[in-house]
Amino acid sequence: MRRLIFEAEHEIFRESARRFFQQEIAPHAEVWREQGCVDREAFLKAGVQGYLMMWAEEEYGGAGIADFRYEQILIEENLRYGEPGFYHQLHSRLVGPYIGALGTDEQKARLLPKCARGETILGIAMSEPGAGSDLAGIKTRAEDKGDRWLLNGSKTYISNGQIGDLFIVAARTVPGSRHGLGLFLVERAMVGFKRGRNLAKMGLKAQDTSELFFENVEVPKVNVLGDPAKGFGYLKQFLAEERLIISVGSLAYAQTAFDLTLDFIKERRAFGRPIGTFQNARFKMAELRAQLDATQTFVDQCVLEHNAARLTPEIAACAKLLATQLENQVMDECVQLHGGAGYMQEYRICRMFTDARITSIFAGCNEIMKEIIGRSLGLDERKLK
Ligand SMILES: Cc1cc2nc3c(=O)[nH]c(=O)nc-3n(C[C@H](O)[C@H](O)[C@H](O)COP(=O)(O)OP(=O)(O)OC[C@H]3O[C@@H](n4cnc5c(N)ncnc54)[C@H](O)[C@@H]3O)c2cc1C
Prior knowledge:
Elements (H helix, E strand, L loop, with lengths): L7 H18 L3 H7 L4 H10 L18 H14 L6 H15 L2 H13 L4 E4 L15 E4 L3 E12 L6 E7 L8 E7 L5 E6 L10 E12 L3 E2 L5 H37 L1 E2 L2 E2 L4 H29 L5 H26 L9 H9 L9 H11 L9
Parallel strand pairs: 1-4
Antiparallel strand pairs: 2-3, 3-7, 4-5, 5-8, 6-7, 9-10
Helix pairs in contact: 1-4, 4-7, 5-6, 5-7, 7-8, 7-9, 8-9, 9-10, 9-11
The site of flavin-adenine dinucleotide has 20 residues, from strand 1, strand 3 and helix 11.
């Protein structure tokens, strides 16, 4: 179905983005998957193109582009033609905006230009071994020592954990208060900051994910983001956009899987006919086509709502729930239609199946999405007694 949210200038941008991902990212993907992380070069090259931190004002190295559709195009083109382990969107759009929105002028001037050039790679560290879905359970703590904060604790499953240079770390600043968290900018070279091994994952092999350890890390006061007691609220504030980003990526990946499966079932023959002509295959693909079009239309509408600053946490939760459920369904059906080939690493669908499995778990698992949506309907045990 024709998508209605893009103008001519978006399409021109899409063409050049596509060339970039085809020429500069895809040829390295296999090596990156083997080594377990992308080369820093990927970020530097994206920086030269102006593809990182596009939202930042020009004085901070960005292009001052508030229109989320440009970011959407980068995410879509990378997933179709590049490599999903190149987490440019985490750097640019999931982490960078915390500095843009909460940072002081000094922090923005010091940090953002290097992020826009890809010289500094960003990550965000919320999750801990005992606190994933329940962020109020964070145990990493920061103590106010007058001119600095002293950070102790550990984080786990942190994306860009190996290649990252600057992490926003959520830590408890108000002992005894479930929501008393601060956000701290921890730099690669800070004494007492260590990273664990690159964790072996089911999929997303070119994306590095690690534990991070903080042992008496002295964080200067100039590296605190916003009010050090309001971190929990900040995290919640940015999660709606994070969920939209996941939805956009999930759908782009699902559309890609659909297209390559359609080609496959037209070519592959069994019982003297292309397997795509069996009624089962035709019906499966028809159902997926209809669901993909409907969900894409909804997510595109969410993008426009986001541009108009009207994307609510509930709508973002609906988008993430629908897009990631559908993505996983598409991957499963498409592996099935590939037969044994779908189980072989040399076929892209095999990799896509495992890459996609995470999307219903991270950025808030889908059960939490249902809680957010359900509570917005007034079905909240804290209020209905
Ligand atoms: C590849 C990868 C990259 C990641 N990147 C980052 C990152 O960059 N930064 C970061 O901070 N974190 C990151 N994470 C962590 C991720 O956000 C957490 O794994 C996720 O929030 C789930 O937390 P958990 O693993 O502790 O699962 P748990 O919280 O233990 O939940 C396990 C399961 O329990 C169920 N469940 C939990 N709560 C509820 C509920 N309220 N109602 C119903 N069911 C529930 C769900 O089925 C859920 O999947 C990453 C994880 C992975 C795997």
